[in-house]
Amino acid sequence: MVIEIDGKIIECEKETTLSDIAVKLYGENHGKLLAKVNGKLKELWKRVHEDAKISFYDINSADGRKTYERGVLFLFIKSVHDVYDKDEVMGISCEYSLGNGIFCEIKGRVTVDEEFAANIKSRMDGLVKENIWFEKSLVSTKEAVNKFLDSDLQDKEHLFKYRRGSTTNIYKLGEYHDYFYGYMPPSTGVLKSFDLKAYDNGIVVTLPDYGEGFEVARPKWQPRELLYKTMKEANSWGKCLGIDTVGDLNDAISEGRINDVMLVNEALQEGKIGKIAENIARFGKKIVMIAGPSSSGKTTFSHRLSIELMVQGLRPHPIAVDDYFKNRDETPRDENGDYDFECLEAIDTAQFNKDMTDLLLGKEVSMPSYNFKTGKREYKGKNLKLGENDILVIEGIHGLNDKFSEALPKESKFKIYISALTQLNIDNHNRIHTTDLRLLRRIIRDARTRGNSAEDTLARWASVRRGEEKNIFPFQEGADEMFDSSLIYELAVIKQYAEPLLFGISKDSPYYLEANRLLKFLDYFLSMPADDVPKNSLVREFIGGNCFPV
Fold first, then answer.
1. How does pLDDT run across 180-211, given as a tens digit for each residue?
2. Rounded to an integer, what distance in angstroms lies between the CA atom of residue 18 and that of residue 30?
3. How many C-beta neighbours within 10 Å does residue 195 have?
4. Using one digit for the tens of pLDDT, what is the confidence trace for 113-131?
5. Neighbouring C-beta atoms of residue 357, cutoff 10 Å
6. How is 271-291 classified by DSSP, letter by letter?
7. Where are the beta strands (DSSP E) in 13-144?
8. Is the pTM higher than 0.85?
């Protein structure tokens, strides 16, 4: 059997496992977690039956990192149940990402402190040394539900109530069974780098940063207090609505309660925007800087915030940073030779700072407008002069970076970080990644407003994410306020718009696997109609029907 890997040709016997092939090529400590075999992702326990082209993935790839995260979380969950009895720990909920850590809640009568963390870390280390294989089996959905009920995993039984398939993949580690959305690493022995940190009555499971790999045995974690506070508030909203998981959301849809859920969720979000406007007015700020990653709903948020600022007696003037893009021929290019619109150098910061300073001094300024078709900045006779109660509302990805607005007085600025942080989990052990929600939002918006296919959006996504990691996320903790733009019901609405676009990606596309993954993810959700979604909802920025110009 002939195998091609990284341009090299090797021969193997038929039925050789991918794990054995990785050892043969890279050695015992290869660190490979997943493989693509003739265009399909495979776990390393799988056997190769025919000639194949294979690519291996480690922790520094997107698919490899998600696989590593699942393995460490499964290891953590099993270790907690190994160390503590059911009357001490009744449940574990893997809630949300905090930098390079996952915050987990422990439900029960045990004190969650550094001693708890040390006990669990010790058990995890022991299981890593034992190098136990993650066993995968295909069982009937009914059998899977019975296993979950026996293991006190009723949230999974709740989720599977809406599953159409008659069979389900479940994983086993030792004698502990669980269900995970996505692939697992081959064994506990590859999970060489992680740490546990007690934090606010919970545990942060820390993973290596991108590029660290297994070089750091105990990765460092820095608290992100503003992000944590915002995520905790979002979770409390979910509990207020009675919806923690996808199963809860599907219940609300099937039982006809979803309209009330939607209206309460929208009201909670409106109240949050109103409080932000009150703070801006109370502190006498003249400039509001709004920044966040792609598809966070920045445009709709800025319009809604402007309305709330008017309620406070202020007169807001929205300004898009995009209008200060340099002309196309002056735009920097990235390492691939493509225009890098994400970098700070793509913005004419000198002109921006001059114009904003003049406005604060009471001067009249001719405001630019960027023509994306011609790639040039234009002036169309739009002039602006600030009055006593006027306030600038500036929206753009660099809003939190002080280098972008270095000439403006700090005491005049109010910084807001906005992102779709997601209040919902698939079940207690399977998180919804915030990037998946934003990616789905972008796919349907790009198709509706720009005529782009889902394949076009997926092709651009990696570059967008690199820009976010460099230009947005490092500055988020410097914000005065953080706003979660996700809505607990929105994936049930987005589903009907995203699915046809994702099905349009052919099997021979390099983005077919990612499209298929997103389709499987959307299968968890029941659909709900968009007819009753309010016209000013942040969801409308993506599905259309917005009452604001976007």
1. 989 999 999 999 999 999 999 999 999 998 77
2. 12
3. 20
4. 999 999 999 999 999 999 9
5. 15
6. HHHHHHHHHHHHTT-SEEEEE
7. 16-17, 34-37, 40-42, 47-48, 52-57, 89-98, 101-108, 135-140
8. yes
